[in-house]
């Protein structure tokens, strides 16, 4: 090589090495995220992922004990000023509005909503009481409506775009025995997300849905009746459920809250700048076939 060219290459390699050593900019730096059900398994895993990428997070939940523990734990890991907790029942319009007001007072804006607060309920169709039906519709369908409407209003007013992520469920698309009320409410969430994507697009507000299949570990909703009903309907012991779901999956892998959080990161960040109105199935492949 001519001397000058060799010098140029060496110089370029040194510059490249310098760049590699520089800390990478965090992709959600300066963003403000509001996560409902933030004290639960998927909500808190998502909060961790966002905090890792430099966002500040507000966790909204009804479970005071879990919320306090989560906020303290995340505050220790990522800095107290970067995490807030707010008690809010997503079925209450007043509490939802107040939770967003507090977010604006505390952090001065909003960029990301993860609508995730949820419950489980499992019963054969004929045993589904009106109370169970109403509870599912109110927490899941109405709750997602109230929370996303509030976030949408703020995002639209700010004129800076934004990302809304719905954590729905495979059950919102595929029928599952014992999950009629839950599945119908999840179907409402999925459709609501698409309507919101349509109306939000001119304002740069993107709305996408994640459909998990069974996420057993770290999730409170897998305790109690849901767990025993699933074990009974599959004729296995409760302790064998995780292995059962793993073996049933196309990829032969279990899904964890961190897997949902990774998709929620993708959908909240600029990596998905060209995606709206979509559904990502995080289900180890189960959505490809009716038999899974
Ligand atoms: P989780 O029970 O660990 O978390 C849910 C959180 O929502 C809890 O902290 C709970 O206190 C909170 N919550 C419940 N009702 C509320 C209300 N009215 N207002 C505010 N907060 C409320 O469960 P998870 O697995 O993290 O579930 C999160 C979401 O993922 C839910 O919407 C659920 O339907 C969905 N999902 C879960 C699974 C799974 O297998 N775990 C599968 C598919 C979809």
UniProtKB/TrEMBL annotation:
Q: Where is the signal peptide?
A: none
Which GO-annotated molecular functions does the record name?
Answer: oxidoreductase activity
Q: What are the UniProt keywords, alphabetically?
A: Oxidoreductase
Q: Which family does it belong to?
A: Belongs to the short-chain dehydrogenases/reductases (SDR) family.
UniProt protein name: Rhamnulose-1-phosphate aldolase/alcohol dehydrogenase
* Taxonomic source organism: Kaistia hirudinis
